[in-house]
Write a structure and sequence with these properties.
heterodimer; A: about 325 residues; mainly alpha; two-stranded antiparallel ribbon; about 75% helix; about 5% strand; globular; B: about 325 residues; ABC transporter involved in vitamin B12 uptake, BtuC; two-stranded antiparallel sheet; 13 helices
Chain lengths: ~325, ~325
């Protein structure tokens, strides 16, 4: 079943990679330089790292039948806090720590609205999505703050053989996979997604679990925001992480996780994030105007959704009518 | 407590809404609250600034937000069925782009208008069809629609295209004189006509009743034999049409077509609908509420521009806070009923 669901995304990724090889024969070439690996594949991984990270947080949120629209704004806030701190003479690590603490608080806020007040996730997180960029601009006072800090630059642009950004993302992926698949946590998250009320009656602390996934999503968004802003050594409250929540949701959905909650696939999300990034890279390398990427994204989304949809629909309708 | 032939409360609603004796039905409360907020924000403005409380400032609210009113009207239909349409901002941009490009290559204005409206409606139809036929989440389908429309803008042109067509320019600069020396643009007239049409369709036609029924409970509506499929597709066609119309109004307002017009406007439209008292889960809400919602957002914008600080971030934060206040308010009302 799981393998079946991942078949189409996997095929799509392979097809995209093949297109790339046809267009640029040197696509798979990798070279070592100063102890760091370079090449198109590494670029895809590095540019896709923030999306992958946010998509991981989003996967767990969506598994509880939620959605988090505020991640892009949270990412912008994380960058704004860190850069403002560094620009005013602070230590980069302290700045990043501050940013992540603030992100955790924002996650608590989202979780509070969803799990305690019982507000629909999409609208609860819309509040922070709208206000969040305003907060980020308030922090940077509407300026683009550029910083010059070597240790901060490492997060987004550094290399330890592989880009540090992708190492962080993969580490988080591994951590999530371990904690959700080797403990009961994954099952509890899925049970909350299927029916929060029933899970609560069965003794699952639904509220705590929902709260946890929103905090986790916000933390992931914060780290991604640090990567994005450190990559350019600047905080741009307006455009950092713009539309990244949409890319992250796409990655999750392409990976076969249902927006209706209740089951999720981390491998699928990884595939989804890779597909989105490879697609973007393909459009660049194929010499098509980069602005048209959006059209291709739309086509891929619809295609993957339709390929996954009909079977599930027939089953659901059959049940509903009986 | 023999529940025999007790007369229903005089003038009581028949559609399952509760009301205290002498009070207003709870379903009207959010709209009334929105109106109170509008009056309050406007009151703050007129106390703080001389010349704020003039007829022309109110008229300007409509002039500057005519396109948003039309968008919010379309969005209200979709949200009433429990769906959502994220594509509207991009469709506005696409419409300005199509209009500008067609006019530049010499097409007559009326044909351009028709083509734009048709394009918006067809995109809405396609999205509605995929949502209904394949049961894919509206969120995802309209997200794809958003990417598609925005991408198509770039396909037409990456640069901004100005509109030099005489008819469009006349429409854009022409004004209607109202009693009291207040002037409005033709865009406002079109927007208000759209609002009236929407009120008529929602409350006086079978289609409108079915929209509310689908939002209340889709399976019940289907079991009652209502044409749920047609209505679900229909609301996306309406939303697509409204987005195209809003795009035309926007192109009159800006007199140009540009791929980066109206970025994030779908969120403004959703915020207006929510502030206007509609529930995102569907079934509850009024078009008039959405219009007042737009006016509230517009007043905040005007207040901040009167303040003269140009710090647009306060707009975002205030709108976020308002959104929060309204969803909490609705939560309280829904819990009590």
């Amino acid at each position: 079943m799981t393998k079946n669901r991942l078949l189409w995304p996997a095929l799509a990724l392979v097809a995209l990679l093949l297109v790339n090889v046809v267009v640029t024969p040197s696509f798979f070439a990798l070279r070592m330089q100063d102890g760091a690996l370079f090449g198109s594949l590494v670029d895809i991984l590095r540019n896709g790292a923030p999306t992958l990270l946010i998509a991981l947080g989003m996967t767990l949120v969506i598994a509880t039948r939620g959605i988090d629209l505020s991640v892009g704004a949270v990412a912008a806030i994380a960058g704004a806090v860190t850069c403002t701190h560094i620009a005013s003479g602070g230590n980069a690590w302290v700045g990043m720590g501050l940013a992540l603490v603030l992100c955790a608080v924002l996650g608590l806020w989202n979780g509070f609205l969803v799990s305690v007040l019982g507000i629909q996730p999409i609208i609860a997180t819309l509040v922070l999505m709208t206000a969040g960029r305003g907060i980020a601009m308030l922090i940077t006072e509407g300026q683009i703050i550029t910083v010059n800090s070597d240790s901060y630059r490492q997060v987004g642009a550094g290399f330890v053989v592989l880009p540090i950004a992708i190492l962080i993302s993969l580490a988080v992926l591994g951590l999530v996979a371990l904690t959700t698949r080797k403990t009961a946590l994954g099952m509890l998250i899925e049970s909350v997604g299927v029916n929060p009320e029933a899970s609560r009656l069965a003794g699952v602390r639904a509220r705590t679990i929902i709260w946890t996934v929103y905090v986790f999503a916000a933390l992931c968004a914060g780290i991604a925001g640090l990567m994005i802003s450190s990559n350019v050594s600047a905080a741009d409250a307006n455009s950092a992480g713009l539309w990244i929540e949409m890319d992250a949701i796409l990655a999750v959905v392409i990976g076969g996780t249902s927006l209706a909650g209740g089951r999720y696939s981390l491998t699928g999300t990884l595939l989804g994030a890779l597909i989105i990034q490879t697609l973007t890279t393909t459009v660049y390398t194929a010499g098509i105007a980069p602005e048209i990427t959006l059209v291709f994204k739309a086509v891929v989304v619809i295609a993957v959704c339709l390929l996954q949809a009909p079977v599930r629909i027939r089953v659901r309708r059959g049940v509903a009518l009986r | 407590m023999t529940a025999t032939t007790t007369a229903p409360p005089v003038g009581g609603p028949t559609t399952g809404t509760t009301r205290k004796p002498g009070g207003v039905p709870t379903r009207f409360l959010p709209v009334i609250a929105t109106f109170v907020v509008f009056v309050a924000t406007f009151g703050v403005g007129s106390v703080r600034y001389e010349g704020f409380a003039s007829g022309q400032v109110v008229a300007n609210l409509f002039i500057d937000n005519a396109f948003l009113i039309v968008l919010a009207v379309g969005m209200t239909f979709v949200i009433l069925t429990g769906g959502i349409d994220l594509s509207v901002g991009s469709v506005v941009a696409l419409s300005t782009m199509i209009a500008a490009a067609m006019l530049r290559s010499g097409w007559p204005a009326w044909l351009t208008v028709l083509a734009v409206l048709a394009a918006g409606s067809v995109l809405g139809l396609a999205m509605g069809w995929v949502i209904h036929r394949f049961g894919v989440q509206p969120f995802i389908v309209t997200l794809a629609g958003m990417f598609l429309a925005r991408g198509l803008c770039f396909v037409i042109s990456v640069e901004s295209v100005s509109i030099k067509d005489a008819t469009f320019r006349d429409l854009a600069t022409g004004t209607v004189e109202l009693p009291g020396g207040v002037t409005i643009t033709y865009g406002v007239v079109i927007a208000l006509a759209a609002v009236l049409a929407a009120v008529y369709v929602l409350h006086l036609t079978r289609f409108g009743r079915t929209v509310y029924a689908v939002g209340g409970s889709e399976s019940s509506a289907r079991l009652m034999g209502l044409a749920t499929g047609r209505v679900k597709i229909g609301v996306y066609v309406i939303s697509g049409f409204c987005s195209a119309l809003a795009g035309l109004l926007f192109s009159l307002y800006m007199l140009s077509g540009y791929s980066l017009h109206a970025v994030g406007m779908e969120l403004d439209a959703i915020a207006a609908v929510v502030v206007g008292g509609s529930l995102l889960s569907g079934g509850v809400g009024f078009v008039i509420g959405s219009v007042v919602g737009v006016l509230v957002l517009g007043t905040i914008q005007t207040l901040i521009s009167f303040e003269g600080t140009l710090s647009s971030w306060w707009t975002k934060i205030v709108i976020g806070a308002l959104l929060l206040a309204f969803i909490v308010l609705q939560r309280v009302i829904v819990r009590r009923t």
